[in-house]
Amino acid sequence: MPANHTAAYESLCSNARETAKLASIMGLLEWDERTKMPPAGGDYRAEQISYLAGEIHKRQTNPAVGEWLAALADSPLAADRHSESGTVIRQLQRQYDKKTKLPQSLVEELSRTAVLGQQMWVEARKADDFAKFRPLLEKTVELKRQEAAAIGFAVTPYDALLDDYEPGATTAEVGPALAGLRDALTPLVEQIVGSSRKPDGELLKKEFPLDAQEAFGKAASAAIGFDYEAGRLDVTDHPFCAGAGPRDQRITTRYNLHDFGDAFFSILHEAGHGLYEQGLPADQFGLPTGEAVSLGIHESQSRMWENQVGRSRAFWEHFLPQAQTAFASLKGVSLDAFYGAINEVRPSLIRVDADEVTYNLHILIRFELERALIEGDLQPAELPGAWNEKYQRYLGITPPNDADGVLQDVHWSAGLFGYFPTYSLGNLYAGQFFAQANKDLGDLPAAFRRGEFRPLLDWLRQQIHAHGQRWSAGELALQITGRPLSHAPWIEQMRAKYGELYGL
Amino acid sequence: MPANHTAAYESLCSNARETAKLASIMGLLEWDERTKMPPAGGDYRAEQISYLAGEIHKRQTNPAVGEWLAALADSPLAADRHSESGTVIRQLQRQYDKKTKLPQSLVEELSRTAVLGQQMWVEARKADDFAKFRPLLEKTVELKRQEAAAIGFAVTPYDALLDDYEPGATTAEVGPALAGLRDALTPLVEQIVGSSRKPDGELLKKEFPLDAQEAFGKAASAAIGFDYEAGRLDVTDHPFCAGAGPRDQRITTRYNLHDFGDAFFSILHEAGHGLYEQGLPADQFGLPTGEAVSLGIHESQSRMWENQVGRSRAFWEHFLPQAQTAFASLKGVSLDAFYGAINEVRPSLIRVDADEVTYNLHILIRFELERALIEGDLQPAELPGAWNEKYQRYLGITPPNDADGVLQDVHWSAGLFGYFPTYSLGNLYAGQFFAQANKDLGDLPAAFRRGEFRPLLDWLRQQIHAHGQRWSAGELALQITGRPLSHAPWIEQMRAKYGELYGL
């Protein structure tokens, strides 16, 4: 190995690790802002965070990074794309290109518009007035198209944006998978809605003391493997998982006295994100070999623990007796009734409140609309009409107003185009991975019934977590399950589960 | 104003504000480490903090700072030492000189020895074996003498070290005040110990539910003015006050079911520190005009709220009825009994557990010993003997072992020489300021009786907090009270208070 290769590689890694140090510090500041910070601390916190963001950007776009990468391009260290060094070089090259391709003026314009957009979105939503938000949405779409053009794309500008959240994924790959999902899902939802058998979710709306909810959620998330020696659970309005270092993952939830499911399943969900982070190689922290692959893969972990595991009958065969000890209101509730209640399907207006089955229809609507906006097939002015039309078509309901319709999500106002589909990709990958794990490990439900979650976690650690970004999401799916991204396993799981529950 | 002056001044301020941004971020990381961080996060947290410390040091010793200061030395901006710009230039010059005078090799040696010293101190204390600690103490004393020599001093090397914590103070000024304190205090303690009247502290050792302690402590600290919109109260082993920004002050305490006083008075104490920080001009954050003067002045604020206010009869005329509502165990307790209990004087071995009166004798012993060590009049090998001899002489007790004697404090093992006297300076300044405030505002106890603490806080804000570092501690005392640092007002307060309590 020529000395200059080694030196360039070491400099590259050291810069990435230093950048990660700043990013992890920023992670703590953001966690604190959302959980502990006194209200008056907000103004200065914004200054601290924007300062760190600037320092991070400086290190990511440092021209020296370009030089180190150029020196390494044809080196033996880069020869195997999936080796440790090959992964580091490939992914840092990717990041450097992305970060340096955008003109500074566009970066600033995007950032300013995102701030204004979110402010205006809050107002427009409160006033139920899409017209207020429209000019900034138009500007945002235009800027995102410029961003896509600056980054470059092969087929559609949407590719360039999707790639930010799901690296390597293309519209040509994701589009058909999601279209297949939609075509298989809408009839299933119609069948469910038409069924005369109705599980009753009301038993989850009795009284559940907050302390007991916290203790029970903590115990269950610890039981599936979330390591509280290297993590915490706190309270926020919107549940999230944030990292403050390689062995410091913090999840949050919110407790509602009259809703067992809201906190419990969000704890499992966020713990699923945390388990992925806790499973990444800590000694590679800050390098692409120690970082998550994509939002889709991240979501596959959270969704799998929340749904394939946490909403399974086997899980509750183990946990329901404990829940009945913890909550007086669950005394005498049968496993069947409880299992039905946590899996009630009901088409609704609001994405974040949606059940496991209809959730993806909310995502599909957003994916189709944002893709059309970016590709120029839909004008922002036409968006509310198109939104309502799709809600009627896919979910059989029409939003009574824009506040609970097209204005319900913050994403577009913040410039997040290409983000929504990763939620559904997470579900599809979760379906694929879970089916494969069940095949590889034998009867997973039997293990859950005994309270054993370690085999599944170890499998995920070995198949996914340990690799960092060595393989892309699509490559991982192919490698682990023998097939590319597909909606089939997930749909099959839904048909089996809800077929039984709703007597289809 | 020549343009180069303005430019240099702006650069200087901007560098200081950026440094403060990093320091405030470090403040949050340290607070989090001691209150919230999961245990496994510690290793990486140390890396984050040491990285930030390095970045802060770089900015403080940046040669450009020296150039800006040189350009400003004779400028009109520096002409008035106490103007806004004059204060900024003078104090940043001071900091720059201090930071750049020490050779890097000495800085590193000091830092390494402090880490080893603290580790060895923990072991030596556990083993009750001073000999284990002696070699590192010898090395530390030698290094601190080198540090003093590098920084320079007029009279004694102890001056150079004291100046780190009490800027501008000299041994010639502090020594006589503390000697006067000692000479007035020892007979008072003897009188108290010899008195047949004994307040009974036992009534504070009944049961005090932790939640109620927290709520009551929070209410009382809010009543004296601590702003919880810009602050928090959390739990730690050792109470402290930490800042994470100009409007983000975090205090901590610990709760003991069978000890009312421990948590309550530490909350008042830390809130006193927090009130000072909350009173500094937020728009000057990061500049010397927005920072605390000295540890002694800081301690004067915490001690005044804890003792002159919180341990006064008037304070409890207002708060005892509330405390009796909050704590069943205080039902039927008379004001006299309660007031006596919170002011029980009992010479004891351990500084941090000492009462208001004897506390200063613990400090005086440490001051005299560390000064002798640094001046070469005492060898580390002779320290345990000298310690025990002074405890017998000043407090009438001899430590049964070194663990509860000379090994009880972490300070010397961490290289903190010159720090201890600031605790007593705080008490003396608190005595001076409180006497003056009482004179300026009329009858302060009458206000306390009505639950009115705002007049005192406003007076402190105006007289002390608002000025940042415009005046040194000694200048402040002279300016506010018309006399230099003196033990007289504090001793007078103690004689009056404890004379009545103990019937002297």
Automatic annotation (TrEMBL), chains A, B:
Biological processes, Gene Ontology terms: proteolysis
Keyword Glycosyltransferase: no
E.C. numbers: 3.4.17.19
Cofactor entry: Zn(2+)
Cofactor binding, per record: Binds 1 zinc ion per subunit.
Domain of life: Bacteria
Family affiliation: Belongs to the peptidase M32 family.
Protein name: Metal-dependent carboxypeptidase
